[in-house]
């Protein structure tokens, strides 16, 4: 009962923090604005006001898109970690982000006038190919699939796909076109991009919430889940489709925003335990908070310049991995 109350408390707390951050994001930018301008831009829009135009047409879609991307990547990471029982699983580690970016590059080469609709389908295709490539490499390794082999295979496949992407970018001189996709960012966001990200995110998130009880059982082990009557293969299949929807849409509009899906499930599990009915909504909130905060930092860290969103999340992710590695090393060492 206490844990249930705590999970609701954390959800309400982080939802309030997300709303405050989104409000702050609407205020920040080269055009001076006030809280009253933000309110009017949302509920009593006047297109003759420069401040309201900047909020309604530039900052608001960007802020909403950042929240969608963070929630999508974080939720997909939680699903992958629960299904694979691998704490290092995530869109960046498991080849989804690099696969989506690689297919987007091929699309730019073959279809120079690539639109958002084509981009999102190519992103889904690339994410799926990257994901299944990682599983194939891990499966072919001696001893079969284990969490460690999945993490190693994912790292190798991600590096390989990234190398192909960078090599083709240099060879065909697509630096300007691919800079946005390779570092991850949401500059110059418009409402169609928000709709593009939201369209796959909604069914993906709904599937994740419906799957949460089954993922909780599967995270205890396939034998335990099967012994309790769960159709494990069906759960894995639906979970994979949910991950592809969430990750494919995010990569299509923002490129590879790294490590959000790896970090946030750890914090959610630390706060509410191992019940994925609580982990998934909390992880979505934490992912949205992380990306909105990183987007604010990307716009304000250097006066007059913007740093890509993916660079901030990658720096945070690298710090997190060092801390996680040190914690695991100390646990394995034990008392002397």
TrEMBL record:
GO terms for cellular component: plasma membrane
Subcellular location: Cell membrane
Record's bilayer topology term: Multi-pass membrane protein
Gene3D superfamilies hit by this protein: ABC transporter involved in vitamin B12 uptake, BtuC
GO biological process: siderophore-iron import into cell
Transmembrane segments: 63-80, 92-114, 120-141, 150-174, 194-218, 238-259, 279-297, 309-326
Keyword Transmembrane: yes
InterPro entries: ABC_BtuC-like, ABC_transptr_permease_BtuC
Keywords, in A-Z order: Cell membrane, Membrane, Transmembrane, Transmembrane helix, Transport
GO MF term (any one): transmembrane transporter activity
Domain of life: Bacteria
Main location: membrane
Family according to the record: Belongs to the binding-protein-dependent transport system permease family. FecCD subfamily.
Stated name of the protein: Iron ABC transporter permease
Organism: Bremerella cremea
Lineage: Bacteria, Pseudomonadati, Planctomycetota, Planctomycetia, Pirellulales
């Amino acid at each position: 009962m206490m844990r249930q109350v705590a999970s609701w408390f954390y959800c309400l707390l982080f939802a309030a923090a997300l709303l405050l951050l989104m409000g702050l994001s609407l205020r920040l930018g080269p055009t001076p604005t006030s809280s009253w301008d933000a309110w009017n831009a949302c509920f009593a829009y006047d297109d003759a006001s420069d401040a309201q135009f900047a909020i309604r047409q530039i900052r608001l879609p960007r802020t909403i898109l950042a929240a969608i991307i963070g929630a999508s990547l974080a939720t997909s990471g939680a699903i992958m970690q629960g299904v694979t029982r691998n704490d290092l699983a995530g869109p960046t580690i498991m080849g989804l982000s690099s696969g989506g970016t690689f297919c987007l590059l091929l699309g730019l080469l073959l279809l120079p006038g690539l639109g958002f609709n084509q981009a999102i389908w190519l992103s889904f295709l690339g994410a799926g190919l990257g994901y299944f490539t990682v599983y194939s490499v891990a499966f072919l390794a001696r001893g079969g699939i284990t969490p460690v082999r999945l993490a190693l295979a994912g790292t190798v496949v991600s590096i390989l796909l990234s190398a192909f992407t960078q090599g083709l970018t240099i060879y065909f001189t697509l630096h300007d076109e691919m800079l946005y996709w390779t570092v991850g960012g949401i500059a110059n966001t418009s409402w169609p991009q928000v709709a593009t990200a939201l369209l796959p995110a909604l069914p993906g998130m709904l599937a994740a919430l419906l799957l949460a009880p089954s993922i909780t059982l599967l995270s205890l082990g396939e034998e335990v889940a099967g012994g309790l009557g769960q159709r494990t293969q069906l759960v894995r299949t639906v979970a994979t489709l949910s991950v592809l929807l969430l990750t494919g849409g995010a990569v299509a509009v923002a490129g590879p925003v790294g490590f959000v899906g790896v970090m946030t499930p750890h914090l959610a599990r630390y706060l509410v335990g191992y019940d994925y009915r609580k982990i998934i909504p909390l992880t979505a909130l934490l992912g949205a908070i992380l990306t909105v905060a990183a987007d604010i930092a990307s716009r304000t860290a250097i006066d007059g310049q913007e740093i890509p969103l993916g660079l901030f999340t990658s720096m945070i992710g690298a710090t997190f991995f060092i801390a996680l590695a040190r914690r695991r090393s100390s646990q394995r060492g034990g008392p002397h």
